[in-house]
Write a structure and sequence with these properties.
Layout lengths: L24 E6 L3 H5 L1 H12 L4 E6 L6 H6 L4 E7 L2 E7 L2 E6 L4 H9 L5 E4 L35 H14 L5 E5 L6 H15 L4 H10 E2 L3 E4 L7 H11 L7 E3 L4 E4 L16 E3 L3 H25 L5 H5 L2 H15 L11 H12 L8 H5 L2 H8 L1 H8 L6 H14 L9 H5 L5 H8 L5 H9 L6 H4 L2 H17 L1 H8 L3
C-alpha cells in the first residue's frame, strides 16, 4: 500500500516537539547523526518553544548523504520514535534549516562557522574524531584525517580541521565571538576540544594574533550528554509509519530518558535550554561527566563485550543474564563509584537503579554490536583511571581487567579463537593495528602484553605487570571455558 512521505505539506503539528525553528539560523552542528538529532536538536526545539530565538540549525555531515538526503526530501522534518517499557510514541522535530556534506561542500562549511549570525558550533564527531593520542594526550598531527588539513583550509576534510580553519576565517572577517560546544561522550569534552583545536592551529603555523583572538573570543564549555540512541532500522521506519500514517526515511529511535549538564559559558548567547526537561547548568560538569562516562558508558562497554561473547544480540538480552548483571554491579560499586567525586546532592544508588532499568528496555533493543564499536577510543575514557587508582593502592581491579579481556577477545582475539558473529559486527578502527601488534604472539599472555604496551592504553597502565597478568588470565578463561566462567572468576566465584 502506498504511503505518503513526511514533509511540510502533511506535517502533523500536534506531534511537534517544542517549536519549529525560524528561517534564521544560529547554530552550526558538525557530525549530524542519530545522537544530535535526538538530543541537542530536541532540546533546542523545546528551548525555542519557551523563549523563541533565531536558533535554527545548520547541520553538517562529514562524508555520507545517508541522513542528509532524506531530511532534505522531508523539508528537514524527522521523527523521534520514543521506546520505553511503558509504551511507544512518535514526535516530530523541525529545527534544521540548512544541510551540508563537508566532503562535497567544504567552503560552505567554513563560511557557516565564520558567519557572525551563528553563535554556537556544536559537535558530535565521536571520540575518535578529535584525533587525540590516548597515550600522550596530544593531537595526532600525522593521522590521515588531520595531516592534510595542516597545509591550509583547502585540505581540511576532518571535522576538527574544518572547525579550526572556520574559526580562523571568523577571526579574519566578522571577528564575532562564538562558542564551540562538544556533545560527545568524553571527559572534559570542552577542554579536549579547545586543546586539540589549539594544537592543530599551532601545527598549521597560524600567527600569534589569530591564536590570541581565538583564546579571547571563543569559549569551549564542558558538557555531559546522556540519552541512549540506537541505530535506525527498517523496523524503526515501519513502527513510525504505523503510528504516524506517513513514511519517514530519517527517524531516530530513542529512550525516554534524557540528560544534559552544561557549563554556562557562552560567548554570544544561547537558547533557553534550561526550559527542556533533563537540562541542568552547573559548575560541577566534570563530576557529572565522570558519573556518566564510568557508571553508564563504562558499564555499557562491559555489557556489550560480555554480551557479544555470549551471543546476546541486544543490550537488554545481555543485561538479563545473571552473570552480566552481577559483573556490572561489581564494576560500579567496587571500581567505578570509588573513583568519582560525586556532584553535590547526587543520589548514586538511585542513578544506578535507573541505569539497570534503562538497560532492560527491550522495546529500545539497543544492539550489542553498536555499543561495543570503537572500543579502542571509548575504553581510554573508561578503564585506565579507575584501574590505576586501585592498582596504586595495591588492589586488583578485576572488573576493569574483565572489560579489557572481553574487548580483546571480541576485536583482537588470540589465534584460533572465534568470538562469534556479534563481535565481528563491532566496528573497531584499530583492528588492523591490533592484529599487527599481536602477530607472532606465542601465547595468550604475550598477546595481551603486546596490546597493553603497544600504545592502545596509557603507558602507566601497561607498566603494571600484575594487571596485564590478570587480563591474560581472564582472556585464557574466555578462550578455554567461555565468558561466563571468566566473569565468575573476576567476581571471585
Amino acid at each position: 500500500m502506498y504511503m505518503a512521505n513526511l514533509n511540510r505539506s502533511n506535517f502533523p503539528v500536534e506531534r511537534r516537539i517544542g517549536a519549529s525553528a525560524p528561517d534564521a539560523t544560529g547554530i552550526v552542528h558538525l557530525g549530524i547523526g542519530q545522537f544530535h538529532r535526538a538530543h541537542a536538536a530536541v532540546n533546542t526545539a523545546l528551548a525555542m518553544a519557551e523563549a523563541g530565538g533565531d536558533w535554527g540549525i545548520v547541520g553538517v555531515a562529514n562524508r555520507s548523504r545517508r541522513i542528509i538526503d532524506p531530511m532534505l526530501n522531508q523539508d528537514f522534518i524527522y521523527s523521534i520514535l520514543q521506546l520505553s517499557p511503558e509504551g511507544t510514541d512518535v514526535q516530530l522535530v523541525d529545527v534544521h534549516r540548512r544541510l551540508f556534506v563537508a566532503a562535497e561542500q567544504p567552503a560552505e562549511v567554513l563560511a557557516a562557522i565564520a558567519d557572525p549570525n551563528h553563535k554556537i558550533v556544536t559537535l558530535t564527531i565521536t571520540e575518535k574524531g578529535y584525533n587525540k593520542d590516548g597515550v600522550t594526550g596530544h593531537l595526532m598531527t600525522d593521522s590521515a584525517e588531520i595531516a592534510p588539513g595542516l597545509a591550509g583550509p583547502d585540505g581540511a576534510k576532518a571535522p576538527l580541521a574544518q572547525l579550526a580553519w572556520g574559526l580562523v576565517k571568523r577571526s579574519q572577517e566578522s571577528k564575532a565571538p562564538v562558542t564551540v560546544l562538544s556533545c560527545d561522550n568524553m571527559q572534559s569534552a570542552g577542554n579536549t576540544t579547545k586543546a586539540m583545536v589549539t594544537e592543530f592551529l599551532q601545527a598549521a603555523g597560524v600567527d600569534d594574533n589569530t591564536m590570541s583572538w581565538i583564546a579571547e573570543n571563543v569559549s569551549f564549555p564542558n558538557a555531559m550528554v546522556d540519552r541512549i540512541v540506537p541505530g535506525t532500522t527498517e523496523q524503526t521506519k515501519a513502527q513510525v509509519e504505523q503510528i504516524l500514517g506517513l513514511r519517514d526515511e530519517a527517524p531516530v529511535p530513542a529512550e525516554a530518558f534524557t540528560m544534559w549538564v552544561l557549563e554556562d559559558h557562552f560567548k554570544a548567547g544561547r537558547p533557553a535550554w534550561q526550559a527542556a526537561p533533563g537540562v541542568t547548568f552547573s559548575d560541577e560538569v566534570e563530576q557529572y561527566e565522570l558519573v556518566k562516562l564510568r557508571l553508564l558508558n563504562g558499564s555499557h562497554s562491559l555489557i556489550s563485550y560480555l554480551g557479544g561473547l555470549s551471543n546476546s544480540p541486544t543490550i537488554p538480552s545481555a543485561r538479563d543474564k545473571e552473570f552480566v548483571a552481577k559483573s556490572v554491579h561489581a564494576a560500579i560499586y567496587n571500581e567505578f563509584l570509588p573513583s568519582i567525586e560525586l556532584p553535590h546532592g547526587f543520589d548514586a544508588d538511585a542513578y544506578v537503579a535507573q541505569l539497570f532499568h534503562r538497560w532492560q528496555n527491550h522495546a529500545l533493543g539497543d544492539k550489542t554490536a553498536r555499543v561495543g564499536s570503537d572500543g579502542s577510543a571509548k575504553l581510554l575514557q573508561r578503564i585506565p583511571e579507575p584501574a590505576l587508582r586501585l592498582l596504586n593502592m595495591g588492589q586488583m581491579p578485576s572488573e576493569m581487567a574483565l572489560t579489557a579481556a572481553s574487548w580483546i577477545a571480541c576485536v583482537a582475539p588470540p589465534a584460533g579463537f572465534d568470538p562469534g558473529e556479534i563481535a565481528a559486527e563491532m566496528e573497531e578502527p584499530q583492528r588492523e593495528n591490533l592484529a599487527k601488534a599481536t602477530a607472532g604472539a606465542k601465547n595468550t599472555h604475550e598477546h595481551v602484553e603486546k596490546i597493553m604496551t603497544g600504545g592502545f592504553f596509557p603507558t602507566e597502565l601497561g607498566e603494571h605487570a600484575e594487571f596485564t597478568d590478570r587480563v591474560a588470565e581472564l582472556l585464557d578463561i574466555i578462550v578455554t571455558d567461555g565468558v561466563e566462567a571468566a566473569a565468575n572468576n573476576a567476581l571471585g566465584e
